[in-house]
């Protein structure tokens, strides 16, 4: 725990880019992840379908699921006591400040303004919990917007983030966001991956703001980032990244399906 805290405290201070060599994915390592974590879903498509054709196709079961649920803000938390009573399956969104976490959660929840976003990095400063629920029956999940690390992060955030990652039994997966244009992990990302690996928190990379990228570049960036991340968190990281844009909704349906799948709620086709 002490080591993890000091790892987290260094998140702000390192700016060297990583140039890690390729390490291949070994799915068998998932056997060592948290007992509460379900087997990984590795069927998600990392590449989104073309926007025009998406418009013509009927909505997927996951998209329909989110459309017919209501999303609401639950709590802002800075320690376990604040969220201990929330026991539904949970996913969290993490990443550097300004990478687009809050915007992405709005997109997933089909809500324009539920989660506050900002052009200024460091806007989200605590763990914010949101719920997706249905009046018609079961199917509630929690979604957590984590404070960004990197620019303008504060040291004291470390303890409660480590507490959250190390002890949160209902946490099914952390979606770790990396900005498409950046195209590689920063040292702050690597330090965060260290924590995920240390506490065996299942994780998946999400490449955000993909609207800023030429589609020809996406495969290259995805595999480079996955290789880099897998070297650091080989036992917890899924082998596929998801490309998303909150602006165009590219890949949001894929992400919604992943969220439902990992929470055990994917409607049968
Ligand atoms: N082009 C583009 N811009 C985006 C996208 N998603 C978010 N942004 C912009 O990026 C900025 C930061 O978005 P946020 O969602 O607040 O980012 P965050 O990661 O929650 O930031 P912190 O809470 O400060 O850590 C805002 O100006 C958004 O409008 C996207 O998909 N495409
Ligand atoms: Mg935010």
TrEMBL record:
Keyword annotations from UniProtKB, A to Z: GTP-binding, Magnesium, Metal-binding, Nucleotide-binding
Record's compositionally biased regions (Polar residues): 42-59
A Gene Ontology cellular-component term: mitochondrion
GO molecular function, one term: GTP binding
Residue ranges of the region described as Disordered: 29-61
InterPro entries for this protein: EngB_GTPase, G_ENGB_dom, GTP-bd, GTP-bd_ribosome_bio_YsxC, P-loop_NTPase
Segments forming domain EngB-type G: 87-265
Keyword field contains Metal-binding: yes
Domain of life according to the entry: Eukaryota
Family matches, as PANTHER family: GTP-BINDING PROTEIN 8
Similarity section: Belongs to the TRAFAC class TrmE-Era-EngA-EngB-Septin-like GTPase superfamily. EngB GTPase family.
The protein's name: GTP-binding protein 8
Source organism: Coemansia guatemalensis
């Amino acid at each position: 725990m002490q080591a993890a805290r000091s790892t987290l405290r260094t998140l702000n201070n390192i700016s060297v880019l990583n140039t890690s060599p390729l390490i291949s994915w070994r799915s068998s390592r998932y056997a060592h992840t948290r007992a509460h974590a379900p087997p990984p879903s590795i069927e998600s498509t990392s590449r989104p379908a073309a926007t025009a054709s998406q418009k013509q196709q009927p909505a997927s079961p996951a998209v329909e699921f989110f459309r017919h649920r209501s999303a609401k803000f639950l709590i802002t938390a800075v320690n376990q006591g604040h969220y201990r009573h929330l026991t539904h399956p949970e996913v969290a969104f993490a990443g550097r400040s300004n990478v687009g976490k809050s915007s992405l959660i709005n997109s997933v929840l089909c809500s324009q303004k539920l989660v506050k976003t900002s052009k200024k990095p460091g806007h989200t400063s605590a763990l914010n919990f949101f719920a997706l629920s249905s009046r018609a029956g079961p199917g509630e999940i929690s979604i957590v917007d984590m404070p960004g690390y990197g620019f303008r992060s504060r040291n004291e955030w470390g303890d409660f983030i480590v507490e959250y990652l190390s002890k949160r039994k209902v946490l099914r997966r952390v979606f770790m966001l990396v900005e498409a244009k950046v195209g590689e992990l920063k040292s702050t990302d690597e330090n965060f991956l260290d924590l995920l690996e240390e506490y065996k928190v299942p994780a998946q990379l999400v490449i955000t703001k993909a609207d800023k990228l030429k589609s020809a570049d996406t495969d290259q960036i995805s595999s480079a980032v996955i290789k880099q991340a897998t070297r650091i968190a080989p036992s917890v990281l899924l082998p596929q990244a998801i490309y998303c844009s909150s602006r165009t909704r590219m890949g949001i349906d894929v992400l919604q399906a992943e969220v439902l799948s990992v929470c055990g709620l994917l409607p049968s086709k």
